[in-house]
Design a protein that fits this description.
This protein is mainly α and about 210 residues long. The protein has ten helices and five strands. The chain folds into two domains: about 70 residues; about 120 residues, Rossmann fold (3-Layer(aba) Sandwich). About 50% of the residues lie in helices and about 5% in strands. The strands form two sheets. A three-stranded parallel β-sheet has the order 3-4-5. Strands 1-2 form a two-stranded parallel sheet. Strand 4, helix 9 and strand 5 form a beta-alpha-beta unit.
Length: about 210
């Protein structure tokens, strides 16, 4: 969801940099990118791994939330290029679409906005035992759609999410945002696309106006 449908990762990076200065930690690009796609629990584990067991994780996360709320209130959160067109194209063919996100339900509803109504199912971190890169979110989404995992098509922006989809037995298209997938992961994907506009164009050529 974040980074694929919603252009929120750059906003998160801005507020994390500001919070890092406040908390006097060295949050490099590489370290920040390693959080993308993970659940809050895994993010907290990584913060302690990088900055020590005594690091004020609750204080840091609270600072990020406060800054992010102010930034979203001031600037809003745009959709990623092609997100609306892709969702409308797929649902227009009668194909049910689900969201499988590492975020919680309140966050998901807020970020998706009016796109929420386009999805047949929305599965969040609150619905499963384990977050990405484990397959639980994708397996639960397939179960709720009543579709075999290998008959689904997953779209992901992050390596963590792509690994979760592959672990669930789903073919996956990667549409990178801030993080370029490593070569070995890209080789396992069904395709790597620059944007959802490109995904839609490829699907339109392959499917035409009929459901595949």
């Amino acid at each position: 969801m974040d980074g694929l449908l919603v252009d929120s990762e750059r906003l998160e990076w801005r507020v994390w940099r500001e919070a890092a200065v406040e908390h006097r930690i060295d949050l490099t690009d590489e370290r920040f990118f390693s959080f993308i796609g993970h659940s809050a629990e895994e993010g907290e584990r990584l913060l302690r791994e990088y900055f020590g067991a005594e690091f004020d994780v609750p204080g840091f996360r609270a600072s990020c939330r406060t800054r992010m709320r102010a930034l979203v209130d001031a600037e809003g959160v745009a959709l990623r290029p092609g997100a609306r067109e892709w969702i409308e194209f797929v649902t227009g063919l009668g194909i049910p679409v689900a969201v499988a996100t590492s975020s919680g339900p309140v966050h998901a509803r807020e970020r998706l906005g009016d796109l929420w109504s386009h999805f047949a199912k929305v599965v969040t971190r609150a619905d499963v035992e384990r977050g990405k890169p484990f397959p639980d979110l994708y397996l639960e989404a397939a179960r709720r759609l009543n579709v075999r995992p290998d008959a689904c098509l997953a779209l992901e922006d992050s390596p963590t999410g792509a690994r979760a989809a592959l672990a669930a037995g789903m073919p996956v298209l990667i549409v990178p945002d801030l993080v370029t997938p490593p070569e070995e992961l890209a080789a396992l994907a069904t395709g790597v696309y620059e944007s959802l506009h490109h995904v839609r164009d490829a699907a339109h050529r392959a499917w035409g106006e009929e459901r595949p």
